[in-house]
Design brief:
Its cofactor is FAD. The protein has helices at residues 4-11, 16-30, 32-36, 44-52, 58-71, 73-78, 85-92, 95-108, 173-176, 218-221, 223-259, 263-289, 295-317, 328-342, 347-358; strands spanning 112-115, 131-133, 136-145, 152-158, 166-171, 181-185, 196-205. The protein is of the alpha+beta class and 370 residues long.
């Protein structure tokens, strides 16, 4: 049973009911058998809330995702809604494409996917191998959340070799159901609710009106609009991880003493989490105001990944004391938290980003306020 008072002490009471529901279904969503079954976990109020995230600012979305992740990030990622496709549609979609996406979602409450990562090139959007030529798309994607379940999705590909040639398209249900797409669920160990999938496109026809950014200047619709989208997504992923870590730390603060878990260390984790939350909210606000500035979101991801890398060995060290039902969610966190390092760029890549930014003369430090 979730202790809503602890949740409220950090976040207020806004999403209490949703958090309880997400925690309730977490283990079932996560269970290996369910990955292969058609069990659908639906909650109409949560569906409506997630649908409303389509028109939220990054800051609003981050605050909401962090709190819902306190319930369970796996169950949250498995839920229907605009996912990260909504973010790129807001950045690069035409009004007609936004309406097409939103109206369908509203009517069908479906799942959606955002397909960037490829088996050979990872999530490096500038070097993707998927190609759009003569009106058709060919290529492979993997690690795509809800890729097998989504009725709609956005896919990234290249039309040529220059950075301006990275483009995206909105795929409709008819296109996704066509025989030119193969979809397969991948075997997964961590954060199974994400339902990571493999997709293969074999000369899938995509009409020009489904290409995002046709109404924008070529400089704005290529890699630059993708980078803006990633800058807005990253604080959401960090928020998911903060909410999950906060739930684990709260359980340790609530029940850990009786189990012999050192409370001073848990309080230390709690304090650092509060600081990282502040940094991440700065990242979210920056993504809204200066969408090209990735310094803060990379920094928040680095700090969070560092903290998780401290929490995990601590939990392993005391693993024998974490066997009671009180700590089911903590044990789940120990496994799932590996996935967060990879989502939206690994720790190493974020450091690489930050070092490049620090080398620039116009860099303003998040800490100095200068
Ligand atoms: C739960 C989950 C959900 C996901 N959902 C989606 C989704 O919905 N859609 C989607 O498109 N993708 C998704 N992904 C994929 C994810 O975005 C990528 O895995 C992530 O961005 C990391 O990129 P990569 O796989 O290219 O790894 P890489 O960047 O290739 O890194 C691989 C490893 O090499 C290291 N490395 C890379 N470069 C260097 C270097 N220069 N120096 C030193 N070390 C280096 C990295 O730190 C890492 O350990 C998901 C992944 C997970 C785990």
């Amino acid at each position: 049973m979730i202790n809503l008072d602890r949740y409220a002490a950090t976040y207020g009471e806004k999403y209490g009911e949703h958090i309880e529901w997400l925690r309730e279904v977490a283990t079932a969503v996560d269970s290996y058998q369910d990955i292969h079954s058609n069990t659908d976990f639906r909650n109409a109020q949560l569906d409506a809330l997630l649908l409303s995230s389509f028109s939220m600012t990054t800051e609003e979305r981050v605050r909401m995702f962090e709190q819902l992740s306190y319930g369970d990030p796996g169950a949250l990622l498995f839920s229907p809604g605009p996912s990260l496709s909504g973010v790129i549609l807001n950045e690069a979609g035409s009004e007609a494409q936004k309406a097409q996406f939103y109206d369908y979602l509203k009517e069908h409450n479906c799942r959606t996917f955002f397909a960037v990562t490829e088996p050979n090139k990872g999530s490096d959007a500038g070097r993707l191998e998927s190609r759009y030529t003569d009106g058709t798309l060919s290529g492979e994607k993997w690690l795509i959340g809800n890729g097998t379940r989504g009725d709609m999705g956005v896919v990234l590909f290249k039309t040529g070799n220059s950075p301006l040639a990275t483009r995206a398209a909105l795929l409709t249900k008819e296109m996704i159901d066509s025989p030119q797409i193969e979809r397969r669920l991948l075997k997964q160990h961590c954060l199974r609710g994400a339902r990571l999938s493999y997709l293969k496109f074999d000369a899938l026809p995509i009409p020009q009106e489904q290409l995002l950014g046709e109404h924008l200047h070529p400089c704005e619709r290529g890699l630059f609009s993708m980078i803006r989208t990633f800058n807005k997504m990253r604080p959401c992923v960090v928020g998911l991880s903060i909410g999950y870590a906060q739930a684990a730390v709260d359980l340790l603060l609530e029940h850990g003493k009786d189990a012999g878990i050192p409370q001073e260390t848990c309080r230390h984790f709690n304090t650092i989490l509060a600081t990282i939350r502040e940094v991440n909210l700065v990242a979210a606000k920056t993504a809204d105001k200066e969408p090209d500035n990735m310094a803060y979101s990379s920094l928040a991801k680095i700090e969070l990944d560092d903290l998780v890398k401290q929490i995990r060995p601590f939990l392993f060290q005391h693993f024998s004391k974490l066997q009671s039902d009180h700590f089911v969610h903590v044990r789940k966190f120990m496994r799932d938290s590996y996935a967060f390092d990879f989502m939206e760029g690994t720790h190493v890549i974020q450091k690489h980003n930050l070092v490049n930014i620090l080398k620039r003369n116009d860099y303003v430090s998040p800490w100095s306020g200068q």
